[in-house]
């Protein structure tokens, strides 16, 4: 298999920086979660774009308090050497009550440069 071919992985095969971010995000630990991002990182979630660690920190704080929900990692895939997808199932008191989301990570220099969260 060529290195540029998508590979399905077990969730424990995700890079440490991604698992650190996901664990901190689930624990509502913004201080730890933000250390996973480059200083000029971009997050796109729910149609909104957050650029830089200050904006990403505000987004993390807001998302931690806006709704109550459970989140379970259901799958992982490496799409190329710097891109990974972590699929999550969320259930909670947000509109619709349940959703599967794809967290699409792009890494640079061992940190998250871009995160796109979409169904």
UniProtKB/TrEMBL annotation:
Coiled coil: none annotated. Residues 18-113 form the SnoaL-like domain. InterPro entries: NTF2-like_dom_sf, SnoaL-like. Gene3D superfamilies: 3.10.450.50. Signal peptide: none annotated. This is Nuclear transport factor 2 family protein. It comes from Streptomyces nigrescens.
């Amino acid at each position: 298999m060529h290195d540029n071919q998508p590979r399905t992985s077990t969730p424990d095969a995700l890079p440490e920086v991604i698992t650190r971010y996901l664990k901190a995000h689930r624990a509502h630990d913004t201080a730890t979660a933000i250390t996973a991002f480059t200083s000029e990182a971009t997050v796109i979630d729910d149609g909104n774009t957050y650029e830089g660690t200050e904006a990403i920190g505000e987004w993390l704080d807001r998302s931690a308090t806006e709704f109550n929900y459970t989140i379970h990692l259901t799958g992982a895939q490496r799409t190329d050497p710097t891109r990974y997808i972590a699929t999550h199932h969320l259930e909670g008191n947000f509109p619709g009550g349940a959703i599967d989301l794809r967290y699409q990570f792009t890494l640079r220099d061992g940190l998250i440069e871009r995160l796109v969260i979409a169904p």
